Amino acid sequence: MVSTPEHSIKVLDQEWVKSWKKKLRGSNPNNGGTSIIFRVSDHIRATDPNAYEPKVVSIGPYHHNKPHLKPMDQVKLLYFERILQRNKEITLDKYLQLIDGLKTQSQLSYSGDIKLGEREFSDMLLLDGCFIVELLLSHYFRSHEQQRENLILNNMTTLSLVEFDMLLLENQLPFVVLKGLLDLVVGDKISLIEIASKFFKGLIKGLEPLPKSDGSSSKTNKFYHLLHLFHACFIGKPIEEVIVADFPTESMLMTPCASDLMNVDVKFKQKTDRSFSWNISYEHGIIEIFPARLNSNSNSFYRNLITFEQYFFRNIRSRVMAYVMLMSCLIDSGKDLDLLRRERIVAYTLDYNEATLFFRKLCKDSIMDYDKSYLSQLQDLSMNVWELYDTKWIRYKAKLKHGYFRNPINSIYLITSAVLFIVLTILQTVYTVLSYYRSSK
Q: What local confidence, expressed as pLDDT, does residue 380 receive?
């Protein structure tokens, strides 16, 4: 074997090494674990591309400079001027220094290539961050401040569009940037968690803002961005505190629909306990469930929450996805939708057929780990409901009630058919006996 002399080994070109390290970092969508804001993957986006696109405002680099979002740039400048007026002791230089100090950390927060130069990226952080902070402050103080022209808060349509744009997975700024800007303006008088959770409270009935004290908690202070914060408010309880039961959760996919459950005397009730709004419960024949409000923004809203869970909580729990899957089981037809609407579990402004198929479409092409999902938290619900539903006489009662006795004409038809069948059976027996005696003679 020929050995290679040590003196023949060449020193590698360090620029070449650096270029390969850069390529390898780029091949990892998580950039070695530092990324907290992601582009939606192509296979997820393909199911509904518009669900992940902002309608009126771009936040962050992914949708920056898109033509249909440019009109909001003037509003961002206006809001930046208002930020400067809020605390005149803080000069423009202080804001620029803050952004410059957070620039590198923020760049690493985004996955994939950022097609912005360093100066343009810094300008984007400054304008988008100040826009959000001013919007949140204006909303928080609007009952106390003197009324002044506000192009967003005074227009409910625009406000609604901006709110939902701020909850898109690709339309986020790092939480640390927003917190830094807010601290410059108001110091430690108000927490970002407090004003942001109050801002989003109007989107969902029953949305529970996190307590003010959570702003100093090491556990709840580690939010990545506003969507992460909203998710924490939306599920009603920190995800880490949920204990997963050892339960075959695939059986939840076989949950009977709402009308079949009603036929076996299961009742539905809107959940009003806001302390843990997603804790669906079953007791004494009553299922308490968090209400769903379906409108033109709901599809994008749920899809972004589900995608966020799949990126960040893949190994923990997908609670929004589990809720969606349960609702897709309960709503199998328009009859189920009508039932849940009467019980105030579902309200909708969508087309009737669209509302009926809403949750089923959301489940299409979605992936979740059932053993680690929130479905495992529905152990008592599933076991008790199936124990009731699988009882033979109750199932038979439900079948008759569902198929025949609901309609009086069907009831009459069933009874008449039964009587006619008995009469024909008797006549056939008599005819057979008579035929036998005649043949004997």
A: 52
Q: Comparing 1-5, 315-319, 323-327, 398-402, which segment has the lowest mean pLDDT?
A: 1-5
Buried b (16+ CB within 10 A) or exposed e, 97-133: ebbeebbeebbbbbbeebebeeeebbebbbbbbbbbb
Do 300 and 219 meet the contact criterion of CB atoms below 8 Å apart?
no
Which residues lie across from 269 on neighbouring strands?
288
Average pLDDT of the chain to the nearest whole number: 78
**Taking Cα atoms as reference points, which of 127, 72, 58 lies closest to residue 96?**
127
Q: Which two tokens stand for residue 229?
A: 């914060």
Q: Do residues 334 and 258 lie in contact, with contact meaning Cβ atoms separated by under 8 Å? A: no
Distance of alpha carbon 311 from alpha carbon 424, whole angstroms: 67
Q: How far apart are CA 128 and CA 65, in angstroms?
A: 12
Least confident of 26-35, 47-56, 79-88, 231-240: 26-35
Contact yes or no for 382/251 (Cβ under 8 A): yes
Exposed/middle/buried for residue 375 (C-beta within 10 Å: 0-12, 13-18, 19+): buried
Q: Is residue 89 scored above 80 in pLDDT?
A: yes
Residues pairing with 347 in the sheet: 293
Contact 328, 364 (CB under 8 A): no
Query: Packing angle between helix 379-389 and helix 392-400, nearest 10 degrees?
Result: 70
The encoded tokens of residue 416 equal 């008449």
Q: Give 282's strand partners.
A: 287
b/e sequence 40-57, b meaning 16+ C-beta within 10 Å: beeebbeebeebbbbbbb
For the four alpha carbons of 269, 274, 275 and 280, in that order, the dihedral sign comes to positive
On the question of pLDDT at 331 being above 70, the answer is: yes
pLDDT digit string, tens, across residues 214-250: 444 444 458 999 999 988 877 765 444 443 333 334 4
Q: What ranges do the domains of the chain cover?
A: 15-235, 241-394, 407-440
What phi and psi values does residue 378 have, to the nearest 5 degrees? -95, 25
